[in-house]
Amino acid sequence: MGSIVLKQVTKSFGTTKVIPPLDLEINDGEFVVFVGPSGCGKSTLLRLIAGLEDVSSGVIEIDGQDATSTPPAKRRLAMVFQSYALYPHMSVRRNIAFPLRMAGMDKAEQDRKVEAAAKVLNLTDYLERRPGQLSGGQRQRVAIGRAIVREPEAFLFDEPLSNLDAALRVGMRLEISELHERLKTTMIYVTHDQVEAMTMADKIVVLRAGYIEQVGSPLDLYRSPRNLFVAGFIGSPR
Ligand code: ADP
Ligand code: MG
């Protein structure tokens, strides 16, 4: 459950090769952070894993099964978008239930799952509000709630905190780490923020121009950066 393996995956847009052949293994339950400068291919890689983009070549395996041509809805991975992806005219309840409603689940079952997710995320008292009546952090939790109800095998976060202010970011970072502790579900978290990478990750994948510079634990990368790019990016003393 929840393992993701990329074998010789490439992605080109037209004649521009954004991801050269790339191999990566993500184990079940790991919190993996993709970090690297803007434009290095973090979002593209996440979208390939989610199935929102097709690979140009190579294989993606989820739970040991070839999922390269599995459509996104069948991959059992939940992409968490920034909080502004919420529907402003719908209540929190309806926002969180959205994927369940789309899947045709009956109303009682939807409510049960929404209420369980709301409990985990401390949103129980806010279910009948609209997103506009919530704080930035609460809106971000609603976006996460919409992912949780699908009971995915992995959560994929693409810079989920980038439109929150600095103080709120610290709090949400802790909340997402705690959520990982509780759910023990695989999480892939994309950021260009070194502090987020160092504090949240079990495993950091440092990307540069579409290829992997280094993979390792925060401590590994800090102590033994492979080159100056990694050292500079991670903030190692080397
Ligand atoms: P990051 O998320 O690390 O900032 P992206 O994955 O968004 O980087 O983009 C990586 C590269 O791929 C960039 O040069 C970007 O311009 C290009 N790119 C991303 N999506 C597309 C697309 N749909 N069409 C053409 N080029 C794209
Ligand atoms: Mg991006």
TrEMBL record:
Any single Gene Ontology cellular-component annotation: maltose transport complex
Keyword ATP-binding: yes
Domain ABC transporter positions: 4-234
Descriptive protein name: Sugar ABC transporter ATP-binding protein
Membrane topology, as annotated: Peripheral membrane protein
Main location as per UniProt: membrane
Keywords: ATP-binding, Nucleotide-binding, Transport
Protein origin, superkingdom: Bacteria
GO MF terms, alphabetically ordered: ABC-type maltose transporter activity; ATP binding; ATP hydrolysis activity
Source organism: Aquibium oceanicum
Compartments in which it is found: Cell inner membrane
Lineage, opening ranks: Bacteria, Pseudomonadati, Pseudomonadota, Alphaproteobacteria, Hyphomicrobiales
Similarity comment: family membership: Belongs to the ABC transporter superfamily.
Segment of the intact protein contained: 1 to 238 of 331
